[in-house]
Amino acid sequence: MTTNELFAKLHEVAVNPKARMDKYLAEGKKIVLCAPVYTPEEIIHSMGFVPMGVWGADTELRRAKEYCPAFLCSIVQSILELGINGMYDGASAIVIPSLCDTLKTMGENWKYAVPSIPFIPMTYPQNRKPAYGVAFTKAGYERVIRDLEKLGGTFDNARLAASNAVYNRHNAAMRKLDEVLSKHPEVTAQQRSDAFKSAFFMTKEEHTALIEELIAALEAQTPAAEKTSILLSGILTDAPGFNAILDDLGLHIVADDVAAQSRQYRTDVPAGDDALTALARKFADMDNCSVLYNAAKPRVQWIVDTAKARNAKGVLVAMTKFCDPEEFDYVMIKKACEAAGIPVTVVEIDRQMVQFEQARTNIETFRDMLTM
Questions:
Q1: How far is CA 345 from CA 25, 309, 314, in A?
Q2: Measured between alpha carbons, how far is 108 from 105 in angstroms, rounded to an integer?
Q3: Is the peptide bond before 300 cis (omega within 30 degrees of 0)?
Q4: Separation between Cα atoms, residue 200 and residue 196, nearest integer Å
Q5: What is the rounded radius of gyration, in angstroms, for the C-alpha atoms of the chain?
Q6: What pTM, to 2 d.p., does this model score?
Q7: How many CA atoms lie within 13 A of 219 on its CB side?
Q8: Strand partners, 346
Q9: How much is the pLDDT for 72?
């Protein structure tokens, strides 16, 4: 397939995950929903289920407001809204991690709002790097395994090792894609978003095959003339209205620090005899993310170093409204970028936005500053 055909296929999956879910259910497969972020998909995959990401949708919040105060993150609220409205009907369960205050409340609300889909908690430790942190994470995974066994899944260490390898290969493909996309300004922000977003709704084997084919097609393609290069940071940047602004203004994302994009794929499961312990060590090895505790905040320097390495002219932070971890980090990101001579700006977005004109004005002014 050509690059345009591959991007069209990825777009189709990204904009209509329900069709993909219905396809798997029609094939007799069981689906386990995976709330953001860092849900242990490898375990779910190894036990015979199809892990399917749930990141909500750009939708008006109605029923979710019965359970959530207005200041909770709209990503989590929209997941609850879709669940109440039956969008996830047919799923065998949902696994919800505990990596922010809003996610910690979501599971209890889900039990009452969507009782037809069992809630499986995944409790992560803040201090994940010491041996006791790894042991705590492993115990959390064992809890997930026991709950999945109640749904008909079977755990086997060798099968988990095989799933770990499947996910490591997908991680490598997504890291390579990020690298290749930095050299192809003709790829739009929307196409980039589709390539990453579609990964949540396909089996990793299927998605890896498409991404590897896309990488080969892009590497055989002559890049277009360079545009204004930026590093994009945030939690979620899949809104078509937002990406249209980046494309209209001629901005090229040469790197991202987006939780729903490249942050997912930086860390592999290390080698080890015990696959479950190795998976717990993967979580311990993760870093450079607002929801992963680290008093030293290495994420800040990671953004500066990556912006320099990819020759980004500036850093654009897409701030998810009411996301406390991101808001706390932004102050340090701004100071570090300014100290390094890298222009930085922030726009606020959420799942309920219909008009993006205020964001457009901000981003257009930022673009003009970068091209002066």
A1: 43, 19, 8
A2: 6
A3: no
A4: 8
A5: 20
A6: 0.96
A7: 11
A8: 317
A9: 86
Confidence band for 353, pLDDT divided at 50, 70 and 90: confident
Q: Which residues pair with 31 in a beta bridge?
A: 50
Of 80, 91, 24, which is closest to residue 56 (Cα–Cα)? 80
- In DSSP terms, 345 is beta-bridged to 316
Average pLDDT of the residues in 136-144:
98
4, 37, 171 from 264: Cα distances, Å: 25, 8, 8
Give the pLDDT score at 28.
Answer: 97
pLDDT band at 261 (very low <50, low <70, confident <90, very high): very high
Token pair 């755990």 is found at 155
Question: Encoding tokens for residue 314?
Answer: 């500036």
| Distance of alpha carbon 35 from alpha carbon 44, whole angstroms | 13
140 three-class SS? helix
At residue 59, does pLDDT exceed 90?
no
- Burial letters for 167-182: b for 16+ Cβ neighbours within 10 Å, e otherwise? bbebbebbeebbebbb
Residue 77 and residue 57 in contact, taking contact as beta carbons nearer than 8 Å: no
Give the contacts of 86 (CB within 8 A, at least 6 positions apart).
none
Residue among 354, 278, 244, 358 at smallest CA distance from 346: 358
Query: Which residues, 6 or more positions from 17, have their beta carbon under 8 angstroms from its beta carbon?
Result: 52, 200, 201
Cβ atoms of 340 and 314 closer than 8 Å: no
Calpha distance 52→202 (Å, rounded):
7
| CA nearest neighbour of 98 among 35, 24, 165, 33 | 35
The candidate with the shortest Cα–Cα distance to 240, out of 188, 275, 200, is 188
Per-residue model confidence (pLDDT) at position 51: 98
Q: Which residues, in sequence order, are bridge partners of residue 320?
A: 349
For residue 306, give both structure tokens: 């990556």
Distance of CA 110 to the CA centre of its chain: 21
354 pLDDT more than 80? no
Q: Is the separation of the CB atoms in 35 and 103 below 8 Å? A: yes
Q: Measure Cα distances from 96 to 79, 123, 302, 338 in Å.
A: 11, 9, 27, 37
